[in-house]
Amino acid sequence: MARVEVRLTGFGGQGIVLSGIILARAAMHDKKGVVQTQSYGPEARGGACRSEVVISDEAIHYPLVEEADILVAMSQEALDKHINSIKKGGMLIVDSDTISRLPEKSEIKVNKVPATGIASEKLGKGIVANIVMLGALTNLTDIVSKEAMEKAVKESVPRGTEEINLKALEEGYLCAQGRGKRIKGLED
């Protein structure tokens, strides 16, 4: 795998930074090079938030995302702000329950995942929508293995919430099942 740049976006309180940490840990479990960075808006909750993860089989000399291979957007504001950061041929994964306007960019692959609905209605815990998105990301891209992602979730979530978070991961993974997946150039 060449260098893969992932940008996870949303607002504070959605678990965006935790998602980046989990993705980075999963990459480490798969024995890949990885760098994770994060930034917050000035507000604690509700403000802009993003987490960036760079994964590579080679040394990573620059830790920031320049052009995202994958953009995960969990709010309309985040999508509007970061849509132009996706490279041609890249993938956009949106929470279709929180995003109503999609870009008209034919050069990217768009995947809609009803993460908030799955988390709230199927699992009874809206707070795990970020983990649902990670499950979908894992299935759609193959940048980390499912086993590594499960291990990273178990290690990263608060003690006592492992079971619900693993269910959320599985629901997201199944939601993305069978969609013409893989980004060109991201296959091993």
Note down, in words, how this protein is organized.
- With 188 residues, the chain is an alpha/beta fold.
- The protein has one domain (4-175): Pyruvate-ferredoxin oxidoreductase, PFOR, domain III (Pyruvate-ferredoxin Oxidoreductase, domain 3).
- It has helices at 16-29, 76-82, 115-122, 129-141, 146-156, 162-175, and strands spanning 4-11, 33-40, 48-56, 68-73, 86-95, 109-113.
- Strands 2-3-1-4-5-6 form a six-stranded mixed sheet, with helices on both faces.
- Strand 2 (33-40) and strand 3 (48-56) form a beta hairpin.
- The relative contact order is 0.18.
Helix content: 25-40%
Count of the separate structural domains: 1
Q: Specify Rg, calculated over alpha carbons.
A: 15 Å
Number of distinct beta strands: 6
The H-and-E topology, N to C, reads as EHEEEHEEHHHH
**What is the CATH superfamily classification?**
Pyruvate-ferredoxin oxidoreductase, PFOR, domain III
Through-space gap between termini:
5 Å
- CATH topology tier name: Pyruvate-ferredoxin Oxidoreductase, domain 3
Q: How is the biggest beta sheet arranged?
A: 6 strands, mixed
What does the oligomeric state look like here?
A: single chain
Percentage of residues in strands: 15-25%
The unreliable regions are 183-188
